[in-house]
Each structure stands twice: as structure tokens, then as C-alpha cells.
Amino acid sequence: MNANVTEKGRAAWPELIRKEFEANQYNGRVGTRLLSETKRVRVWEIRLAPGERIGFHRHVLDYFWTAVTPGRARSHAENGTIVEAVYSAGETRHFVYGKGEHKIHDLENVGDADLWFTTVEFLDSSNAPLELGDGRHDVASSERGRLPNEA
């Protein structure tokens, strides 16, 4: 993953993004579709067409993701940083969270092709799994109000 990190702070985010962060910072739906869940794991899919994004969500469980397709994405993180990243197909990253640790972020496809990830969360992590809520997909597309560019 090749990434460019900008530290502007949340005050520099568009108003729509700031409001969404406040409303969804405890969202445990870390993918666009839950593919499978057992006593040990949750397997998620993230599929984003160009201009689509998955809204803010909180990671509290140990997990890994694998990029199924290559692509480019922008992510707003809880600490105010904005990360623009380029992913290669097959690229995988692992994350571990200690008791009380977490990460909150969103993900927008800023490339010109579909972006597809598989994410696996481990339910026996240091933190309890978050509730998943009503099961709705938290994807915002250009038809529902694409976010303005921040450049």
C-alpha cells in the first residue's frame, strides 16, 4: 500500500463528514455486507464503485483485510488525518487492538474502477464485539450525494 497522509484535523473536514463522524462513531459494521459469522469470526465484503464510500465505522476487534482488486481510496481517521492510498490486488494488512483500543474511519473509492476488499474480524479479541444494528448497508454513492474533493 502506497499512502499519502495529510494532517488537517477534523475542523478541515467538510461539514457532512464531521456530522457523519459524530453520528456513526460507534458503528460496528466494518463492511458493506456481512458474508459469514461464526463463534470465532465475522467475514465482511467491501465493494465500492468509483465515488462510493463506506461511512464511519469503529474497529475494536483484531482483524485483517485483503484487497481483492487494485484501486485508490481516501479515508478520514478519528485523529483528523486524511489518508489517500493505492492498493494492489492480494495486498493484506493485519491489525491488533488491546483492551479499550479502537480505530474509527471511513473509506471512499477515489479511483476509476470498483474497489473490493475482504475483511475478517476475530470475535475472541481483547474487546467485545460491537452490536451491528439494523443491518443496513452504510454506503454513500454519487447518486446519494458524492462528497466534494478535499484537495
TrEMBL record:
<dbReference type="InterPro" id="IPR014710">
    <property type="entry name" value="RmlC-like_jellyroll"/>
</dbReference>
<protein>
    <recommendedName>
        <fullName>Cupin domain-containing protein</fullName>
    </recommendedName>
</protein>
<dbReference type="InterPro" id="IPR011051">
    <property type="entry name" value="RmlC_Cupin_sf"/>
</dbReference>
